[in-house]
Structure formats: C-alpha cells, structure tokens
Amino acid sequence: MRARCHELGADRDDRLSSRARARRTTLRMRAASGYGATHRESRGPRRRSSNGHQRATYGAAWNEPDEGTRTALLEATFSEYGRYQDPMGIADGRAALVAHIGGFHAGYPGRVIDQASGVDILDGAGVRWAWVMRHGDQIELEGMDFAELAPDGRIHRIAGFFGPFPPLEA
Length: 170
Known about the structure:
Elements: H1 2-7, H2 18-32, E1 46-49, H3 52-62, H4 67-77, E2 78-86, E3 89-92, H5 94-107, E4 111-115, E5 119-122, E6 126-135, E7 138-149, E8 155-162
Parallel strand pairs: 2-8
Antiparallel strand pairs: 1-5, 2-3, 4-6, 5-6, 6-7, 7-8
Helix pairs in contact: 3-4, 4-5
C-alpha cells in the first residue's frame, strides 16, 4: 500500500484520518516552536499566581458603586477598546463596561463580587480565575472569568461564565 500511494504521488498524510493529520500537524508545530514534540513537553510555560494587584483592582471596579471611581479603576486594568462578555450582555469598550457594571449595581443591590481562586496564567494565551457573587454571607452565584491581555498588561478581552460547568452529554 505504501509503495502504491507513493507511486500515485499521494503524501503519507493523505492516508491518515483528518484527526490524525491535525494531531500530527499540532505536534510538528509544537516541536518547531521549541516546546518539544510530545504532549507532555508541549504544554509550554505556565505559572500559577495570585497576581494580586491587577486582579484586585479589576475586582474593586465591580464592587465600586461610584461611576467616577469605577472608571479610574478600569483605566488601570481594562483597555480602552477592550471587550467584556457574559451571559447578561456585551460591553464594547471601557466606557460600556463602566455602564454595564453600573447596571449590575442597579439590578443587584447589596451584592458584591469576590475572587474565589488564585489567578491562573497561561503565558501567551490568557488568565482565568473563579469568583462568587455574595449577598451578605450567602453565595448566590459562582463563576469563572477568562481574560486575554493587551501588550501593556491590561485586560483586552474577557469572557465571564456563570455557574458550574454543564454536565457531559451521553
């Protein structure tokens, strides 16, 4: 079969399934990038961090009822033309996020958003952390944010997810 495929000018990859070709391509790309050819070696640099200051400042913006103070907090942590998205809506740009958070305060008075995990950083890909929405001592909602950072280190794009992961479908 190998000789026959070679005679017909078919590349060895043509005999592989599309999934196998994609896996081979991924491994080749990882090997070429210097991370190694095996899955274990190819995970690349990853670090876990509490990255307290920037995340805390962004979180403080969510808990700030005053629009001026909230704007100043987001200027330090969120790109001017960044994008925020969660199940409640989309905010394109920092000013829209300031308004979106104002809507949160109006719709959920007395609630606060607290960080519920350290910040997990995957260099070159983004950061993620868990959070909870509290009303007094009661947790009303859990979620996770995944953010991509701009070159200056501020959040450029963020997706907020509410609740636990959905169950696997059979």
